[in-house]
Design a protein that fits this description.
Blueprint (H helix, E strand, L loop, with lengths): L3 E4 H30 L8 H25 L1 E4 L15 E6 L5 E7 L10 E3 L3 H6 L7 E6 L2 E11 L2
Parallel strand pairs: 1-2, 4-5
Antiparallel strand pairs: 3-4, 3-7, 6-7
Helix pairs in contact: 1-2
């Protein structure tokens, strides 16, 4: 069975969401269904159908989260000695060699990726190009319009 890499923070976020779904959302929707049933004819009861749809979503998400958590491999980058090498969980500052633009990304699991917070998936083209390289290396990233060269300026274990 394949294990999926996840940061400590990513695992905690999934556990928190699971707790919210099981402890708050699921009981609320069960109550909503019971209240809607009391309103009579279920065929034309929009509240009932909306609550059932919500219940289906919640149960599906609970199954999804439990599956991900049972197959995750939590990697705490802070416990790994700093070597200057780009690995899962590191925060990497790269410089576009053509424009001199500097950008910093943290390489995280698929579920944690959020480009607005500069967290990129380990399976993204940029992360795949960076993994295994070291500070000072130049990497070539394939993009739809060609390629971009970046220099790895700094690797941090934050």
């Amino acid at each position: 069975m394949q294990k999926y890499p996840m940061t400590v923070e990513g695992e905690q976020a999934l556990r928190d969401e699971l707790k919210q779904l099981k402890g708050t959302d699921r009981p609320r929707v069960i109550k909503d269904i019971a209240v809607a049933r009391e309103h009579g004819d279920l065929k034309e009861n929009a509240e009932y159908h909306a609550a059932r749809e919500q219940q289906g979503f919640i149960e599906g998400r609970i199954q999804d989260l439990e599956g991900k958590l049972s197959n995750c491999q939590v990697i705490d980058v802070k416990s790994i000695p700093h070597s200057g090498k780009v690995i899962f969980g590191t925060t990497v500052t790269i410089i576009n060699l053509e424009t001199d633009a500097e950008v910093t990304y943290r390489i995280v699991g698929d579920d944690e990726a959020d480009i607005k917070q500069n967290r990129i998936s380990v399976s993204s083209p940029i992360a795949r190009a960076l993994i295994g390289k070291e500070e000072g290396d130049v990497v070539v990233v394939k993009i739809p319009s060609g390629t971009v060269e970046y220099e790895i300026d700094r690797v941090q274990h934050l």
